Structures are given as C-alpha cells and as structure tokens.
Amino acid sequence: MSLSRLKAVVFDWAGTVVDFGSLAPMGAFVDAFAAFDVAISIDEARVPMGMAKRPHVAALLAMPRIAGEWQRVHGHAPTEADIDAVYAVFVPKNIAVAASYADLIPGAAATAAAVRAQGLKIGSTTGYTREIMAKITPIATAQGFTADAMACTGDVPDGRPTPFLMWKVLTELEVYPPWAVVKVDDTEVGISEGLNCGAWTVGVAVTGNVFGLSQADTAALSAQEFALRRRRAAEKLAAAGAHYVIDGVADLLPVLATINGRLARGERP
Fold first, then answer.
1. For 71-84, what is each residue's pLDDT tens digit?
2. Which of 17, 66, 74, 224 could form a disulfide with 108 if both were Cys (CB 3.0 to 4.6 A apart)?
C-alpha cells in the first residue's frame, strides 16, 4: 500500500475517459429538438453539458433564443410537459449512438492502472442514465478502464452540481474524508459537483466538452487555433473553480503527486 494521502480518484465519463470531445449527446439533442421543428446548434447543446439529461433539456428550453423559437413554432412558452416530450425523444437517440462513442481517450487505461498501482480506488459519476452506461461500460472495460463504483443520473434524487452522486460513490468505495479524493471532469457543472463534495478538482480541457472537437479535428487545428481553444477551455474550467486544469487524463499523475504533497503539508481543497 502506498503512503499516499489520497484515497480515490473519481472520473467523469464522456469527454474525460471516453468519447474524445464529448460528441455522443450533441447530435441526439439537435435531432430531438428538430423533431419538434425547433433548430438548435451544437454550441447551444453543449452549454448545460454535465447535467442529468432531463435538466439539460430544461436548461436548453430556458435559453432565451430557444425559448423564443419554441414560442414562435408552438404558440406557447415551453412547459414541463414539453420538457418531458423532448426528453422522451432524446433518450433513445442517445442510447442508439452511445456505443459508437465509447472509445477510451488516450491515456485513460494507463492512468487508471497507475492510479490503482498507487493503492487508490477509482470511482465515477456521470450525467448519463444506467441504461446509457450499459452500452458504454463493457466497451470501456474491454479497452482497459473500469471503475470500482459508479453513480448515474437517477441513482440519487438530484444530480450535478449537487454532491449526491459523489457521496454515493464514496460510500460504495468506503472512502472518506472528501479531501482525500480527486474529482476529474471536463464540464463546469462536474467541477462544481466535486467542489460541493469537498474534493480536489481537476478540469480536463482539450479532450472534453468545452474544447468540443474530435481527436481528428483537434489534430487538424493550426497551432494558433489549438492554443486559442485550449486557453479558452482552461479558463472556463478554472473559473468554475477547478484546482488544476490538464489537457487530458494522460496528464493526471503529476497533479496527483502535487496534491499528495499539499495534503502532507496539511493543506485542504
């Protein structure tokens, strides 16, 4: 057993350990709204990412432009029934594409193995439902990433940014106090989840939702455009309160060492 003061790392899924760019839900959101003759953009669909998906739909319908378009098309402001209707169309679309976006992000398997080698446990939280995760976890496991505990939307009364999913995972892992835990996430609301739990937080800038491009599209960027998008993503995650921001999970291990050093000096998140 390592002398590490940290006890666990809790990872988000899409954009953090699988689905480079967090692309899977985007088309499903656009298509779901199109079914109601309301056009939304990929950039708009990304704004609430990290939330449970029904609250995500509600947040989209609360955006002034989208709410105005809904009013124009349907003759009334969006209602709770409308949220339910869009969500009911979205869910099967997301389930249908989830397995196609389950490839591990580079470094995820090696990082998980190194975390375990240090004697730490691995947890995970997600804005996805268990039905969606059932399509993803077997593929991730086959590629070398598994979590010791996972909490999904629907497992607790309210999801991110509350700490309830984190508390559920830490209870299953039998890990406390929360300052001995690191939450790794590519969304602002996921960072808030970690902060509200009392954990250290690490934002993932390049592989995740804020950067928002596939691995191939990221590689095709000019050095100037890459640097600009990277800076903007890092600034958003830092503004959300992330203690550290990295490009991707492949860069996590030095941060864990730094946090262990801070804990050894009596520092807390």
1. 999 999 999 999 99
2. 17
